[in-house]
TrEMBL record:
This is Alpha/beta hydrolase. Keywords: Hydrolase. Residues 69-272 form the Alpha/beta hydrolase fold-3 domain. InterPro entries: AB_hydrolase_3, AB_hydrolase_fold, GDXG_lipolytic_enzyme. Gene3D superfamilies: alpha/beta hydrolase. The keyword Chloroplast does not apply. It holds the Pfam family Abhydrolase_3. One of its GO terms (molecular function) is hydrolase activity.
Length: 298
């Protein structure tokens, strides 16, 4: 473990999702304790995307942006909202120079699959349809997210490909949750890792899937065909249950002819980039922004 990160482990709440209401409060408290982002170089606006039901979004619009990313927050499908994601969405907009459309998708278990995916797809369609208003090139729209949001972003890319939806130029997947199965080495063996462990990951998937079968749109690792998907940047954390499924997904994308940049961050754990004082966290956040900037400029 990176020593700068290890010192903060006692401050993280136990990795548990048995009581979603309590965990949402803990998650919100963690986010509220972060240093506020600098939004002086961008416009920040709350909007509502018309859908069934409507979807709240928060738009971060840096000056002279050329592209946009539909950004999906983490939280195990159960936690998170526009406010908890504010520190990260603002930093991503600042680091990348892209318009970030942060999505307040519906949460499980009250709203199991496919509610969150439907919300994300509705916002992608809205973003593509409002590209001129947002001041971006409709050919430069990406999807991305962290943890559960990364899995949702991968699912959006799959569904957009299959249903001839809006064109997506890039996937930015940070420690994504892609597989509901407990089959990889990291998923089976990381039983006591900070913030996310085997049991918490399993609980997140139970909440998200409910009684529905796991399809590729719920768990993208189940997709048999990954050809024709947008280029991807995939980042993994060394001590994260999702690590091996993310690396396997990156390899499968490559084998399907999809260009991939894969970055495995040593000494890190799931969500440890929230420890902003650590050098490795600063490099992770900067690299996410740089990867998105490169993709939207290409």
């Amino acid at each position: 473990m990176d020593p700068e990160l290890e010192a903060f482990i006692p401050l993280f709440p136990p990795a548990d999702l048995t009581d979603p209401a309590t965990e949402r409060k803990n998650f919100a408290a963690l986010a509220a304790g972060l240093p506020p982002p600098d939004t002086s170089a961008m416009e920040v606006e709350d909007r509502t995307v018309s859908a069934d039901p409507d979807v709240p979004v928060r738009i971060y619009r840096p000056h002279r942006a050329r592209g946009a990313v539909v950004w999906l927050h983490g939280g195990g499908f159960v936690m998170g909202d526009l406010d908890t994601e504010h520190p990260w969405a603002a930093r991503l907009a600042d680091a990348s120079g892209a318009v970030v459309v942060s999505v307040g998708y519906r949460l499980a278990p009250e709203h199991p699959f496919p509610a969150a995916l439907d919300d994300a797809c509705a916002v992608l369609a809205w973003t593509a349809g409002h590209a001129a208003e947002l001041g971006v090139d409709p050919e430069r729209i990406a999807v991305g997210g962290h943890s559960a949001g990364g899995g949702l972003a991968a699912a959006v890319a799959l569904r957009a490909r299959d249903e001839q939806g809006p064109a997506i130029c890039f996937q930015l997947l940070n420690q994504p949750g892609l597989d509901d199965r407990q089959e990889t080495w990291s998923r089976r063996n990381f039983t006591d890792t900070p913030w996310m462990n085997r049991d918490k990951a399993a609980a997140a998937w139970r909440h998200y899937l409910g009684s529905a079968p796991a399809t590729p749109y719920a768990a993208p690792a189940r997709a048999a065909d990954l050809s024709g998907l947008p280029p991807a940047y995939i980042a993994t954390a060394e001590f994260c249950p999702n690590r091996d499924e993310d690396i396997a997904y990156a390899l499968r994308l490559l084998q399907a002819g999809v260009s991939v940049e894969l970055h495995q961050w040593p000494g890190t754990f799931h969500g440890s980039q929230a420890i902003l004082s650590a050098d490795v966290s600063q490099r992770q956040i900067a690299e996410l922004g740089a990867a998105l900037r490169r993709a939207l400029a290409g």
